[in-house]
UniProtKB/TrEMBL annotation:
It comes from the Bacteria. Signal peptide: none annotated. SUPFAM superfamilies: PRTase-like. CDD domains: PRTases_typeI. It holds the Pfam family Pribosyltran. This is Pyrimidine operon attenuation protein/uracil phosphoribosyltransferase.
Length: 170
């Protein structure tokens, strides 16, 4: 891995992209009274909390939030949620993570809801690296980034990392 660290998004850009994603979610789901954001722990959940706050500020929709905790590197699905997944029944859910790389984390997040009848499922990520190993794609994204496999994207979010918001290519 290279020791070179390149800033991809700064704090203000992350804020702007978060607002844009929230508006895209509203536009795409204007007919829904309730939306369910499903944040992949840890940074995906923090990002989902931010989206929830923005959506509540700009709309009168009910925005529910579920936290999914899993081992992202595991070869099998083992996930827990902080709320019962049944609250998503017949609703639109948006799986949220900070970075979409291989698609494994979002695929596992989708797996949690396989036995729940949903209206529809979408995905939202801050950064889409496009190195998909799973058939998972971002419906809403802050930025798409072409990288080589040995490069790594790191996102810091103030609420989780106690550092200023930023996204770095390392």
């Amino acid at each position: 891995m290279s020791s070179k660290k390149t800033l991809i998004l700064n704090k203000e850009q992350i804020k702007q992209k978060s607002i844009r994603i929230a508006y895209q979610i509203l536009e795409d789901n204007f007919e829904d009274e309730t939306l369910v954001l499903v944040g992949i722990a840890d940074r995906g959940y923090v990002f989902a909390q931010r989206l929830q706050a923005i959506l509540q500020d700009i709309s009168d929709k009910e925005i529910l939030l579920i936290k999914v905790t899993m081992k992202k590197t595991s070869r099998s699905l083992s996930a827990n949620t902080d709320l019962a997944v049944d609250i998503a029944k017949d609703k639109t859910i948006i799986l949220v993570d900070d970075v979409l790389n291989s698609g494994r984390a979002l695929a596992y997040g989708l797996g949690v809801f396989l036995n729940v009848p949903l209206k529809k499922m979408r995905t939202a990520v801050l950064i889409d690296r496009s190195h998909h190993k799973f058939p998972i794609f971002s419906d809403y994204y802050g930025t798409k980034l072409s990288t080589i496999l040995r490069e790594h994207v790191t996102v810091t979010l103030e609420e989780f990392d106690n550092e200023e918001d930023a996204a770095w290519l390392i």
